[in-house]
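step=encode ok
step=design start
structure_in=
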């Protein structure tokens, strides 16, 4: 096989995807265990509210989540405007912010319901 046709796993895109996967797996484990345990074992006042927040991804399409996130982090949006004014940072379409964006999408799409019994 010619060398130009061999896929290399040290390409920045592969490294970026691997780092994103590791960070999101850690976030899923740390963020998901407490609400899952509370819903499975606990009996508290706001259990219905927490249950609805966990099940929200079933009715909220991914396109809506992406659009809301885009509106929030653009330089004229509420989060993007603060970051632009205070820190001089633009997070719209930048590589270091992709684990955060993917994590937000994960919370809304698959959420914490995967640990619910």
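sequence_out=
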């Amino acid at each position: 096989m010619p060398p130009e046709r061999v896929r290399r796993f040290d390409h920045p895109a592969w490294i970026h995807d691997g780092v994103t996967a590791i960070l999101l797996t850690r976030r899923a484990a740390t963020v998901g265990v407490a609400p899952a345990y509370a819903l499975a074992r606990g009996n508290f006042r706001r259990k219905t509210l927490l249950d609805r927040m966990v099940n929200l991804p079933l009715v909220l399409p991914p396109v809506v989540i992406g659009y809301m996130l885009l509106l929030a982090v653009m330089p004229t949006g509420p989060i993007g405007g603060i970051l632009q004014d205070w820190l001089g940072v633009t997070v719209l379409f930048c590589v270091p912010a992709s684990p955060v964006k993917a994590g937000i999408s994960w919370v809304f799409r698959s959420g914490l319901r995967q640990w619910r019994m």
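step=design ok
step=annotate ok -> Residues 12-41 form the longest helix (30 residues).
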